[in-house]
Amino acid sequence: MKSPWRILVVSPLLLLPLHSSTSRAHDNQPGTIRSDHYTCVGCVLVVSVIEQLAQVHNSTVQASMERLCSYLPEEWVLKTACYMMVHVFGADIIKLFDKDVNADVVCHTLEFCKQEPGQPLCHLYPLPKESWKFTLEKARHIVKQSPIMKYTRSGAGICSLPFLAKICQKIKLAIKNSVPIKDVDSDKYSIFPTLRGYHWRGRDCNDSDKTVYPGRRPDNWDAHRDSNCNGIWGVDPKDGIPYEKKFCEGSQPRGIILLGDSAGAHFHIPPEWLTVSQMSVNSFLNLPTAVTNELDWPQLSGTTGFLDSASKIKENSIYLRLRKRNRCNHRDYQNISKNGASSRNVKSLIESLSRNQLLDHPAIVIYAMIGNDVCNGRKTDPVSAMTTPEQLYANVLKMLEALNSHLPTGSHVILYGLAHGAFLWDTLHSRYHPLGQLNKDVTYTQLYSFLGCLQVSPCPGWMSANETLRALTSERAQQLSETLRKIAASKKFTNFNLFYLDFAFQEVVEEWQKMGGQPWELIEAVDGFHPNEVALLLFADQLWEKVQRQWPDVLGKENPFNPQIEEVFGDQGGH
Ligand code: CA
């Protein structure tokens, strides 16, 4: 759930420190988590992929490295840089593979992974038959004088190597040029998809005018311009009445806003990036988008997704349902989620929420921090680092007060319970990870222990072989959910109604099983932790059904003019 996962994806692909230019500082995770631990994970993943590509295509390691480079997209000179890396470092990697060592040994030999004094040895694959020390000594001897060692030992970054300085310069420039010049934070709505653009909140329809944005009440019934970007504007020539007045007045338009974590933002590492049997140039086409979206896919999320899902599931996001119910709601969505977010830092998220109490339509706000209050990067005593019910109570009340001063009257806030993470271990521990499917050698138990050992596990409490720890984590999550339920039952606010909904995972599993699915198919394959796209859409379906049944006012009325809006304005300018 933490942002350094991005480092894991970008840096190993090139083994370059690109992350410093693409990531933004956030998270309040303990400072003990070091980015080189992610480099170790990244190295093991990439080396495994190279090894398996050679195996599947019955090719040399050299050919397999070049094959991987050929699959990478051209953006940011990724492909060129990859070939460069093969040219410089390939010979050493080949020499190591010749000695029949696994990815753990390769990465420890090249010092992308380091066993620190007094710390356990972290490995993904089973340990070699000969002793670890002996194997490593032997491997180290092979690459003693190699350029890659000069790099990893210098700690100064690969760009400090004279023969790579030029290409580094080129990559940095390419990244800089791919980022919109406009400061994406100062103006919250954007005409760009990524970097917190319209994948995250409704697309702006006039980038040069700050009084124009999705979710506002129409200015002068939008007779002359589309001030709220819902695609409805102008005057009906037949009777001189503005369309926005004719079709939307009294229709109770409203937006949807999610205050969430990586699950709400739909964190997802495509399994295609690691599955060699299917790997092709198509596998990495989405890499630049993914990286500039913090490895999140809000455009496909259960709450604010607006693109068609690639999964065969027919369920729609909450946003698309609200839009279908009342087409005046077009583009009124905000996914204010962040990897690593929890009740502890939700207040800073609210600062980036855009809602003007006087000018805008009411909103449905969903607070869904489903894990990070009990998940944290600390291996030593994870329980003491969890949010207590008292702390959660204080954090959430502060957040609600802040919301009360932001939201237009008539809004609704739904507090969502915490996840039931014990499901992860129960469902996955004996299954093979995508990386282990070819040779049946990496299970989720091994992945969890590898990540936990390196202190980069997104949730050591639940992603653990320790049954007692998993139970304690679940117990605390339940106490926190109960606290949220109590707050919703006892507190009143002037500008919104407050509700609580359980994270009813069992119901989602049952629904999925009725559709012929298996429980493990609801979890992200690569990280073995997050709910995947199917799960998120099933959750959205469940939430919608429950709200419609219990509190129908939250969703607003069905707009009888929907067919006319479609007739006059088509897809209303799309998303
Ligand atoms: Ca409009």
Tell me what you see in this structure.
The chain is mainly α and 575 residues long. The chain has two domains: 34-160, no CATH class; 254-560, Rossmann fold (3-Layer(aba) Sandwich), CATH 3.40.50.1110. Helices cover 39% and strands 5% of the residues. It contains 20 helices and five strands. The chain has helices spanning 5-14, 19-22, 35-56, 61-71, 78-98, 103-109, 132-142, 147-154, 165-178, 243-248, 287-292, 318-325, 346-350, 389-404, 422-428, 444-453, 467-490, 505-514, 533-550, 562-569; strands spanning 255-260, 333-337, 363-368, 411-416, 496-501. The protein has a five-stranded parallel β-sheet, sandwiched between helices. β3 (363-368), α14 and β4 (411-416) form a beta-alpha-beta unit. α3 (35-56) crosses α4 and α3 crosses α6. The model is unreliable at 1-33 (pLDDT under 50). The structure holds calcium ion (CA). Calcium ion (CA) is lined by residues 218, 222, 226, 228, 230, 232-233, 244. Residues 37-69 are annotated as: Important for enzyme activity, localization to cytoplasmic vesicles, and protein stability. Residues 36-117 form the Saposin B-type domain. Heterodimer of the large and small subunits; disulfide-linked. Ca(2+) 1 binds at residues 183, 185, 187, 189, 204, 207. Residues 172-176 are annotated as: Lipopolysaccharide binding.
Give the CATH architecture of the largest domain.
3-Layer(aba) Sandwich
How many helices? The count is 20
Tell me the distance between the termini.
28 Å
* CATH homology superfamily name of the largest domain: SGNH hydrolase
Question: Helices and strands: which structural class?
Answer: mainly alpha
Q: What is the CATH topology descriptor of the largest domain?
A: Rossmann fold
GO cellular component, one term: cytoplasmic vesicle
GO biological process, one term: lipopolysaccharide catabolic process
Binding site for Ca(2+) 1: 183, 185, 187, 189, 204, 207
Subcellular location: Secreted; Cytoplasmic vesicle
